[in-house]
Amino acid sequence: MSMHRDPAAPIAPRDKREEAATGLPMDVDTAAHQRFVAAARRYWRGPLFRALHAQASAAPDAGRELVTHRYFAWLERHLQRMKYSGPHGLVASAERDRETLTRSAPKALPPGLLTLDPDLVPPAYYTACDIHQQPGGLLADLGAHVYRAGVSGGVVGAEALHERFAVRVVGARSVERILDLGCGFGRSTLAFARAAPQAHVDGIDVAASCVTLAARETPPALHDRVAFRQAEATTSGLPSGAYDLVTSTMLLHEMPEAAVRALIAESARLLRPGGIVAHLDFLAPANPVLRMLFEGHARRNNEPYLLDHGRIDIDRTYADAGFTRVDVTPFDEEDGALDVPPRAWRLPWHMIVAQKS
Amino acid sequence: MPAAASSPLPEQTFFADPAIDRLLGVTMALAAEVYVLRSRVLAFEARAAGEPADGSTSDEDAATFVARLLAPLIGEQDAKGPL
Fold it and tell me: Which of A48, B27, B51, B56 has the most C-beta neighbours closer than 10 Å?
């Protein structure tokens, strides 16, 4: 009997717990590898970050040269690589179960729930870089499955963040038509559908894999008031003045400055007079240590446009697009997230809310 | 950001000597493989003891393993002594 085994070959048994958590079929070796990476990331953003924050705050001129910072930066870069790449990475894991993941064809969905555009050409900036270090990005046909598994253990993948944002935006407002730009695999879209139980919610995303997975994951109870469409946010082709609320979650930081400006203008076109635009995204922190880490995150996590949004004069740009007022407020994605000093490294979430004239 | 390259791009480096970057990559790859093996050994031990085992280690087990592995990166003494 051969003692050799192809590490990329599927093996039994499966890890049912990890499969349930990530939505991705997974063998026990891959699950153990992913559990190791996830634990290392928790150590990186917790104890290692707190040590770095204390050391860098005590020696503000040392900054990037601190040995702890070098290890922090290395781990940020390479734990993300280890999550997605290699024989136990999520991309290889998804490929091993391609047949399972693609078995449920979109034609089985109710009419109107999913509209794909095979002729859509994604923007060049979108294809120039594998964002988040996910090989192939979200345009790969299994890209959404891989992305969902990749964020499953963190704040981004948790329903709580999206529900918290949607509830705060909708509040006591009466909204009947909502558009979710860059909806990904639908977490944000479904959160708005639940926060506004009378509303119809459209989710659009440039990636076919994302809107397809979003439609497949939509509970039947929401089928009659949620729809997903493959479309680009700045040239959506949707009718003018059709929406009470236009929203996005973690979209702006993926776009270069010119595209963000175009999106703000497109949002104004899509809203009725008095309608609301609400974005949940990242703006650089004022604290110099946190700012240094945020700026470094852009390069280390393959986020080439992360800092572009911060270069825009938000008040003026929204005013020029026809909005009357803009509120920019820090967003606590979970209880205690805004504590000082911070308990863990986090992205500097902000809500940007404006009303159309 | 360059357009998608036809050949691999050089990996980012964070240390004055890029050999440290690469060697740390080897170290972490080995650590991950040790954890995969640890998970298998724990599953075999559980089965040998007649306990139910699904081959899945806990998040707490992974956290304990990682804390032992990465604690030296913080660069602090465990017992007070000379610098």
Answer: A48
